DNA sequence: CCGTATCCGAATCGATACTG
DNA sequence: CAGTATCGATTCGGATACGG
Protein backbone atom coordinates (compact mmCIF):
# COMPACT_ATOMS: atom_id res chain seq x y z
CA UNK A 1 0.00 0.00 0.00
CA UNK A 2 2.33 2.68 0.85
CA UNK A 3 5.55 4.00 -0.44
CA UNK A 4 6.77 2.94 2.93
CA UNK A 5 6.58 -0.80 2.39
CA UNK A 6 9.41 -1.36 -0.05
CA UNK A 7 11.16 -4.60 -0.57
CA UNK A 8 14.48 -5.16 1.06
CA UNK A 9 16.56 -7.72 -0.78
CA UNK A 10 19.76 -6.50 0.74
CA UNK A 11 19.06 -8.66 3.72
CA UNK A 12 19.52 -11.89 1.88
CA UNK A 13 22.71 -10.92 0.12
CA UNK A 14 24.19 -9.62 3.33
CA UNK A 15 23.14 -12.76 5.05
CA UNK A 16 25.33 -14.71 2.66
CA UNK A 17 28.40 -12.49 2.63
CA UNK A 18 27.82 -10.42 5.73
CA UNK A 19 30.09 -11.99 8.30
CA UNK A 20 33.42 -10.65 9.30
CA UNK A 21 35.38 -12.78 6.87
CA UNK A 22 33.14 -13.89 4.04
CA UNK A 23 33.54 -10.73 2.03
CA UNK A 24 37.27 -11.03 2.08
CA UNK A 25 37.24 -14.69 1.17
CA UNK A 26 34.92 -13.97 -1.74
CA UNK A 27 37.14 -11.11 -2.78
CA UNK A 28 40.06 -13.43 -3.22
CA UNK A 29 38.11 -16.28 -4.73
CA UNK A 30 36.71 -13.86 -7.29
CA UNK A 31 40.12 -13.76 -8.85
CA UNK A 32 40.94 -17.43 -8.90
CA UNK A 33 40.51 -20.62 -6.98
CA UNK A 34 42.53 -21.00 -3.86
CA UNK A 35 43.68 -23.69 -1.50
CA UNK A 36 43.01 -23.73 2.21
CA UNK A 37 46.40 -22.53 3.32
CA UNK A 38 46.51 -19.90 0.64
CA UNK A 39 43.40 -18.39 2.14
CA UNK A 40 44.89 -18.68 5.60
CA UNK A 41 47.77 -16.53 4.47
CA UNK A 42 45.64 -14.08 2.51
CA UNK A 43 43.12 -13.38 5.23
CA UNK A 44 45.03 -11.74 8.06
CA UNK A 45 44.22 -12.89 11.53
CA UNK A 46 41.78 -15.64 10.71
CA UNK A 47 42.10 -18.92 12.56
CA UNK A 48 41.82 -22.39 11.09
CA UNK A 49 38.58 -22.89 12.89
CA UNK A 50 37.06 -19.72 11.52
CA UNK A 51 38.24 -20.28 7.99
CA UNK A 52 36.80 -23.77 8.00
CA UNK A 53 33.54 -22.48 9.35
CA UNK A 54 33.23 -19.68 6.83
CA UNK A 55 34.09 -21.95 3.93
CA UNK A 56 31.57 -24.55 5.02
CA UNK A 57 28.99 -21.84 5.36
CA UNK A 58 29.65 -20.44 1.91
CA UNK A 59 29.62 -23.93 0.50
CA UNK A 60 26.30 -24.84 2.05
CA UNK A 61 24.83 -21.69 0.59
CA UNK A 62 25.95 -22.71 -2.88
CA UNK A 63 28.40 -19.86 -3.27
CA UNK A 64 31.64 -21.77 -3.42
CA UNK A 65 32.65 -25.24 -4.52
CA UNK A 66 35.00 -27.48 -2.59
CA UNK A 67 37.08 -29.84 -4.67
CA UNK A 68 39.05 -32.51 -2.90
CA UNK A 69 41.92 -34.22 -4.66
CA UNK A 70 42.28 -37.77 -3.35
CA UNK A 71 46.01 -37.75 -2.87
CA UNK A 72 48.67 -37.33 -0.25
CA UNK A 73 49.33 -34.80 0.96
CA UNK A 74 45.72 -33.70 0.82
CA UNK A 75 44.80 -30.94 -1.54
CA UNK A 76 41.56 -29.00 -1.55
CA UNK A 77 40.64 -26.20 -3.89
CA UNK A 78 37.92 -23.67 -3.32
CA UNK A 79 36.31 -21.90 -6.23
CA UNK A 80 33.23 -19.84 -6.96
CA UNK A 81 30.10 -21.50 -8.24
CA UNK A 82 28.01 -19.65 -10.83
CA UNK A 83 25.97 -18.26 -7.97
CA UNK A 84 29.14 -17.12 -6.31
CA UNK A 85 30.33 -15.47 -9.50
CA UNK A 86 27.07 -13.60 -9.68
CA UNK A 87 28.12 -11.81 -6.51
CA UNK A 88 31.06 -10.21 -8.25
CA UNK A 89 29.27 -6.89 -8.86
CA UNK A 90 28.63 -6.68 -5.13
CA UNK A 91 32.22 -7.44 -4.28
CA UNK A 92 33.33 -4.93 -6.88
CA UNK A 93 31.13 -2.23 -5.39
CA UNK A 94 32.50 -3.03 -1.96
CA UNK A 95 36.03 -2.84 -3.28
CA UNK A 96 35.46 0.39 -5.20
CA UNK A 97 34.07 2.05 -2.13
CA UNK A 98 36.92 0.85 0.01
CA UNK A 99 39.54 2.16 -2.39
CA UNK A 100 37.86 5.51 -2.69
CA UNK A 101 37.16 6.18 0.95
CA UNK A 102 39.80 4.27 2.78
CA UNK A 103 42.64 4.05 0.36
CA UNK A 104 44.77 1.34 -1.10
CA UNK A 105 46.55 0.55 2.09
CA UNK A 106 43.93 -1.86 3.27
CA UNK A 107 41.86 -1.69 6.39
CA UNK A 108 42.66 0.98 8.87
CA UNK A 109 40.30 1.79 11.67
CA UNK B 1 55.78 -12.14 -5.54
CA UNK B 2 52.93 -10.07 -5.38
CA UNK B 3 50.21 -11.51 -7.45
CA UNK B 4 49.09 -13.07 -4.22
CA UNK B 5 49.22 -10.06 -1.97
CA UNK B 6 46.38 -7.99 -3.28
CA UNK B 7 44.63 -5.34 -1.33
CA UNK B 8 41.32 -6.15 0.24
CA UNK B 9 39.19 -3.09 0.84
CA UNK B 10 36.03 -5.09 1.12
CA UNK B 11 36.79 -5.63 4.75
CA UNK B 12 36.29 -2.06 5.76
CA UNK B 13 33.05 -1.55 3.89
CA UNK B 14 31.62 -4.76 5.26
CA UNK B 15 32.74 -3.76 8.70
CA UNK B 16 30.52 -0.72 8.44
CA UNK B 17 27.41 -2.27 6.93
CA UNK B 18 28.02 -5.92 7.67
CA UNK B 19 25.85 -6.59 10.67
CA UNK B 20 22.50 -8.25 10.54
CA UNK B 21 20.54 -5.03 10.40
CA UNK B 22 22.76 -2.26 9.10
CA UNK B 23 22.26 -3.11 5.45
CA UNK B 24 18.53 -2.94 5.78
CA UNK B 25 18.63 0.32 7.72
CA UNK B 26 20.88 1.82 5.08
CA UNK B 27 18.62 0.51 2.38
CA UNK B 28 15.71 2.47 3.77
CA UNK B 29 17.70 5.56 4.64
CA UNK B 30 19.02 5.64 1.09
CA UNK B 31 15.58 6.67 0.00
CA UNK B 32 14.81 9.32 2.56
CA UNK B 33 15.36 10.24 6.17
CA UNK B 34 13.37 8.32 8.70
CA UNK B 35 12.33 8.62 12.30
CA UNK B 36 13.07 6.04 14.95
CA UNK B 37 9.66 4.43 15.01
CA UNK B 38 9.45 4.40 11.25
CA UNK B 39 12.56 2.27 11.20
CA UNK B 40 11.12 0.08 13.92
CA UNK B 41 8.18 -0.67 11.68
CA UNK B 42 10.25 -1.05 8.52
CA UNK B 43 12.79 -3.47 9.90
CA UNK B 44 10.89 -6.59 10.82
CA UNK B 45 11.75 -8.19 14.11
CA UNK B 46 14.26 -5.69 15.38
CA UNK B 47 14.06 -4.64 19.01
CA UNK B 48 14.42 -1.14 20.36
CA UNK B 49 17.70 -2.04 21.91
CA UNK B 50 19.11 -3.38 18.68
CA UNK B 51 17.87 -0.50 16.56
CA UNK B 52 19.37 1.99 18.97
CA UNK B 53 22.64 0.13 18.94
CA UNK B 54 22.83 -0.13 15.17
CA UNK B 55 21.97 3.53 14.71
CA UNK B 56 24.56 4.63 17.24
CA UNK B 57 27.09 2.44 15.50
CA UNK B 58 26.34 3.87 12.08
CA UNK B 59 26.41 7.35 13.55
CA UNK B 60 29.78 6.91 15.20
CA UNK B 61 31.16 5.69 11.88
CA UNK B 62 29.97 8.84 10.19
CA UNK B 63 27.48 7.10 7.96
CA UNK B 64 24.27 8.56 9.27
CA UNK B 65 23.31 11.80 10.94
CA UNK B 66 21.05 12.04 13.96
CA UNK B 67 19.00 15.19 14.19
CA UNK B 68 17.10 15.84 17.40
CA UNK B 69 14.26 18.31 17.39
CA UNK B 70 14.01 19.93 20.83
CA UNK B 71 10.29 19.64 21.27
CA UNK B 72 7.68 17.53 22.94
CA UNK B 73 6.94 14.88 22.03
CA UNK B 74 10.54 14.17 21.06
CA UNK B 75 11.34 13.82 17.41
CA UNK B 76 14.53 12.41 15.96
CA UNK B 77 15.36 12.06 12.30
CA UNK B 78 18.05 9.87 10.86
CA UNK B 79 19.56 10.65 7.48
CA UNK B 80 22.59 9.70 5.45
CA UNK B 81 25.71 11.78 5.63
CA UNK B 82 27.72 12.31 2.44
CA UNK B 83 29.78 9.31 3.44
CA UNK B 84 26.60 7.33 3.90
CA UNK B 85 25.34 8.41 0.50
CA UNK B 86 28.57 7.21 -1.02
CA UNK B 87 27.57 3.71 -0.01
CA UNK B 88 24.56 3.80 -2.29
CA UNK B 89 26.31 1.91 -5.13
CA UNK B 90 27.03 -0.87 -2.67
CA UNK B 91 23.45 -0.98 -1.46
CA UNK B 92 22.27 -0.90 -5.06
CA UNK B 93 24.48 -3.82 -5.97
CA UNK B 94 23.19 -5.74 -2.98
CA UNK B 95 19.63 -4.96 -3.97
CA UNK B 96 20.13 -5.84 -7.61
CA UNK B 97 21.58 -9.19 -6.67
CA UNK B 98 18.77 -9.88 -4.27
CA UNK B 99 16.12 -9.11 -6.85
CA UNK B 100 17.75 -11.26 -9.46
CA UNK B 101 18.51 -14.30 -7.37
CA UNK B 102 15.89 -14.25 -4.68
CA UNK B 103 13.03 -12.38 -6.22
CA UNK B 104 10.93 -9.41 -5.35
CA UNK B 105 9.19 -11.07 -2.48
CA UNK B 106 11.78 -10.00 0.00
CA UNK B 107 13.80 -12.22 2.24
CA UNK B 108 12.80 -15.81 2.35
CA UNK B 109 14.78 -18.20 4.42
C1' DC C 1 8.26 9.48 21.29
C1' DC C 2 12.79 8.05 21.94
C1' DG C 3 15.46 6.11 24.18
C1' DT C 4 18.70 3.75 28.57
C1' DA C 5 19.67 -0.02 32.19
C1' DT C 6 19.71 -4.54 33.73
C1' DC C 7 19.22 -9.43 33.62
C1' DC C 8 20.50 -13.61 31.58
C1' DG C 9 20.73 -17.42 28.23
C1' DA C 10 22.74 -18.31 23.63
C1' DA C 11 25.86 -17.84 20.12
C1' DT C 12 30.55 -16.58 18.74
C1' DC C 13 35.32 -16.79 18.57
C1' DG C 14 40.47 -17.40 19.72
C1' DA C 15 43.75 -20.63 21.48
C1' DT C 16 45.27 -25.01 21.77
C1' DA C 17 45.73 -29.83 21.00
C1' DC C 18 44.98 -33.67 18.06
C1' DT C 19 44.08 -36.49 13.41
C1' DG C 20 44.14 -38.84 8.55
C1' DC D 1 47.96 -30.23 4.07
C1' DA D 2 43.56 -29.71 5.66
C1' DG D 3 41.06 -30.08 8.79
C1' DT D 4 38.24 -31.63 13.84
C1' DA D 5 37.51 -31.40 19.16
C1' DT D 6 37.23 -29.12 23.21
C1' DC D 7 37.49 -25.23 26.49
C1' DG D 8 36.84 -20.73 28.25
C1' DA D 9 36.17 -15.79 27.50
C1' DT D 10 33.68 -12.47 25.29
C1' DT D 11 29.90 -10.71 22.96
C1' DC D 12 25.16 -10.87 21.17
C1' DG D 13 20.62 -10.26 21.64
C1' DG D 14 15.74 -10.66 23.37
C1' DA D 15 12.68 -9.43 27.29
C1' DT D 16 11.51 -6.31 30.55
C1' DA D 17 11.42 -2.20 33.26
C1' DC D 18 12.31 2.55 33.74
C1' DG D 19 13.31 7.77 32.34
C1' DG D 20 13.29 12.53 29.91
Describe the structure.
Two copies of one chain form a homodimer. Chain A is of the alpha+beta class and 109 residues long. Chain A has a single domain, classed as Winged helix-like DNA-binding domain superfamily/Winged helix DNA-binding domain (Arc Repressor Mutant, subunit A), CATH 1.10.10. The first copy, chain A, has helices at residues 10-17, 22-31, 36-42, 48-60, 82-85, 88-101; strands spanning 34-35, 64-69, 75-80. A three-stranded antiparallel β-sheet of chain A has the order 1-3-2. In chain A, strand 2 (64-69) and strand 3 (75-80) form a beta hairpin. Chain A is globular. The relative contact order of chain A is 0.15. Residues 1-5 of chain A have low confidence and may be disordered. At the A-B interface, helix 1, helix 2, helix 3 and helix 6 of A face helix 1, helix 2, helix 3 and helix 6 of B. Chains A, B: Residues 8-106 form the HTH hxlR-type domain. Chains A, B: This is Helix-turn-helix domain-containing protein. Chains A, B: It comes from Gilvimarinus gilvus. Chains A, B: Keywords: DNA-binding, Transcription, Transcription regulation.
The domain tally of chain A reads 1
Q: CATH topology of chain A, what is it called?
A: Arc Repressor Mutant, subunit A
* Count of β-strands of chain A: 3
Largest sheet of chain A, described in full? 3 strands, antiparallel
Secondary-structure element order of chain A, N to C: HHEHHEEHH
Report strand % of chain A: 5-15%
Largest beta sheet of chain A: what is the strand line-up? 1-3-2
Biggest interface and which pair forms it?
A-B, 46 and 47 residues
Residue windows where pLDDT falls under 50 for at least 5 positions of chain A: 1-5
Radius of gyration of chain A: 16 Å
Structural class of chain A: alpha+beta
CATH class of chain A: Mainly Alpha
Q: What integer is the average pLDDT of chain A? A: 88
Q: Which shape of chain A, going by the Cα principal axes?
A: globular
Q: N-to-C terminal Cα separation of chain A, in Å? A: 42 Å
Q: What do we call the CATH homologous superfamily of chain A? A: Winged helix-like DNA-binding domain superfamily/Winged helix DNA-binding domain
Which assembly state applies to the chains in this document?
Answer: homodimer
Q: Tell me the CATH architecture of chain A.
A: Orthogonal Bundle
Level of helix content of chain A? 40-55%
**Number of helical stretches of at least 4 residues of chain A:** 6
Amino acid sequence: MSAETSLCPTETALDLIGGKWKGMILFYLCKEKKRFNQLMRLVPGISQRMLTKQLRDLESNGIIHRKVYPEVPPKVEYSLTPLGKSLKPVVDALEAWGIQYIGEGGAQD
